[in-house]
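As described in the Methods, two query proteins were run sequentially through the folding procedure within a single session, without resetting any intermediate state between them. The first query and its resulting structure tokens are shown here.
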Amino acid sequence: MDAGVEFSLEVSQNRYLPVGGTEMHAILSVTGQRTTEGDDQPPRSDPSHLAEVLVIDCSGSMADPATKIGAARQATAAAVDVLPDGVRFAVIEGTDQARVVYPPQGGLAVASAQTRRRAKAVVARLSAGGGTAMGSWLAAARDLLPTEPSAICHALLLTDGINQHETQAELDRVLHTCVGRFVCDTRGIGDGWRPRDLIHIATVLSGTAEAVRRPAQLEAGFRETIRTALAKLQPDVRIRVQTLPYARVGFFKQARPALMDLSERAAEIDERTVEFTTGSWGAERRDFHLRLDVTAPDDLLNEDRLAARVELVVGGQVRPATTAVLVNWTDDLVKSARLDSDVSQVTGQEDVRQAINAGCDAYDRGDLIEAHAQWVRAVELATRTRDEPALEQLRYLVEIEPDGLVRLKPNLSRMDMNVSWVNSSQTSYPDAPRPPVRPGPAEVHRLCGACGWPSPADADYCEQCNADLGTAEAVGRAGT
């Protein structure tokens, strides 16, 4: 499959640490750009490579009020309408078990005017009754979706309730079998669902978690979600991090456009190399926050040392786009105190969302004092960093006076809290365009990929461990 997308990889960091410093933070920016065909037109996904499963909660709670199941029918029909001819698809009715309602014979149907019409007729008859077991729904989607490497597989899961007919361990076991098989976006409706469930499923399966405050908003959201899924061109992109002996991965998060901690999804390649799956990609940019825990291997100061090499693995192949995360222990406090703009903005957004979620946690357990304190902190942080999306969510939780006074909303609804909680995972890029990367000085020294030691620019072998600097295990230039 010709993916029609090229990838670039950049790193933003301040490589200087004070003497004794042990944490190196870096932002990895991955950008996918569509290539052009002979007529200068960007390629489009081959519909035959796309597969979509719509998983609709039809438990008994969807009938209370009846507007929920009605909105679900309407939104699902709208999603089916968006599917172009040739896309394979299915609809699953989710209760305490999963049932494929379309196509009636099981498997996947191929989208056409006829199959879309038949699917919508089936969807119009969906009714509410039974329990909720999301793991069984995801397992059914997994078993329906194709396994060929070229397939771009996506599921959209809608729920209004609590995953009460299976244990967390059962759900996690299913999720483990789905990683890398398909991307799943989760959506909440009503006020009975748990934000943690939606966020957990979406994070493990490289998707997004969102929710609506009014059932009428669901249709537009479904259409947009399906259109986004259909724009994917590459089914599998992974980020590989190889560390030096004095460094290890502290955490790895997707930072933008949605915040999700990917640390627990690391696939160990060897004792120094891990890979993180990021799901399917189109023409888009995502930023990732890598923290390395480092220990100075010697008393050398003011020299760049290689801490980690980062590579992109696309469709199982390592791409030429490779970058280095450096570390330089220095006694120059001016250098070590300098803040990298990308790192500081990402950590600022993470701090805001951590405070929002901590407030929701506290409110959920009835601790209004702690909830208020956390949301006051979130407002202060969001205001300071001009994080308008976070402030938009906070305004559903608190009243913000012109003088900066923050009050809890007197009649805060469960729906507003849940929706703000899950939607706060969405992050944003700075309004100002990123400054162009200025070329650094000529190569000053070469960094050994085996031990991180800096050797002269014309050296063929590492002066420390004698490794061949011309092999793939060596990384060249000092950072700028």
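Immediately afterward, the second query was submitted; its sequence and tokens are:
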Amino acid sequence: MVVFATSVFLLLAFIYWRTAGFMTAQTDETIEAEIAGLAEQYRGRGINGLITIIRERVARDPNAKSIYLLTTDDFLKLAGNIETWPEGARSESGWINFTLNQDVGWRGPERLARARIFEVQGGLRLLVGRDVDELTNLKRVIETAINWGMGITLGLALLGGFLMSRSTTRRIEVINSTSRRIMNGHLSLRIPTRGTDDDFDQLAENLNQMLDRIVYLMEGIRHVSDSIAHDLRTPLTRLRNQLENTLMSVDNDEAREQAGRAVAEADQLLATFNALLRIARLETRGNTADMKPVSLDSLVSDACELYEALAEDKEQVFEQALEHQVMIEGDRDLLFQMVSNLIDNAIKYTPEKGTIRVVVRRDGEDCLFEVSDSGIGIPDDEKDQVFQRFYRVGKSRSSPGNGLGLSLVSAVAEIHQARIELSDYRPGEENPGLTVTIRMPAYVVEKKRIRTTQIDPQSGASGGEQRNSPSESSNV
């Protein structure tokens, strides 16, 4: 808008400068021509001839455009159509701009004039000028037109800039919104194009091609890891069974101990492969889970009841703050695994006599599930990486585990459109602990009236559930 308005302003200013300058120069040339004619009369007929020609011109047209005044050196009028010398700033070349009014003896209406003054031989003074009132009015008209033109230009520039900005912003927002959805896990989406082959379409096509390449590479890596997990699970299971048979057949205590450790290692490997396959199935499953109304507080209460014994073995304080009737929509089995994993992690990484706190509450239109512990915590620079497969925090590398628990939690949260937030439970302490907050959309009964008449949330939350033992949940 500024560039457009400045360009138009410079163009109009140039037109005004050339037009006004041309009209002013034309007036000066007319005055110079009259002065040349009077000078020729003066040279041919003397002072009397000069007075005579001035009087003749004034008598012929007393209200003419030309202005004349011839006086003696003491300003006594000899001829002319004004009576006295006008007041005004006089330039070095003798030009003066003044007002024709009664003060100078002008008999007509007040007008603007421009004249040139010079001295004639014999001490006489001569003023020759022109009425420039029409020229001044014309300049005002041009200035008014320029001002209106600038106003219209600014209006058009604002309108055009708004429309262009709106169109550009709309295109950019489409790219941004699609990119945000892709970053949230919807890798099948692509940025739409208009088919105009403009810069935005070319950018969208380049981004889409880049996404296709990324998805292709990710699918290749995922396929390799899933294939390895699937192919190795069967021989590992056979190996584990053979080790267990060996454990049962040997009589030597040392051999039995070694065989027992081998069985435990095989169980850990099988748990890792099962977790990998479980995460792969969840990521492939997307949002096709069996979504039903679930009482989150009832589900979490069942999980807490299952894990309280583990916390008691470590003499940990196990606190619960469960708000009643906190309803969400989701797959109960998946949600139970997510909750179990988080509680199991909290117990595992909290030292003896530490504190575990589990909270369920409503927060506006969301339902919150929080698990806090007074354990080792997660450094701020690693909180964005703990959801990656096999990633383990430096402090916890010596503890048993495979680094897949939070990956499974992230996969379940993605299916339920939930957001995960990590924060310190006790900021500033040597062991700040960790608070994991799962923020899920609340179940709105009014929008599901037909379904809620067929499903009892209480029975759906507590009936037909299958509990896992703590060891089985942690392995998953």
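Residues 72 and 124 are 5 Å apart (CA to CA). We note this only descriptively and draw no conclusion about the first query from it.
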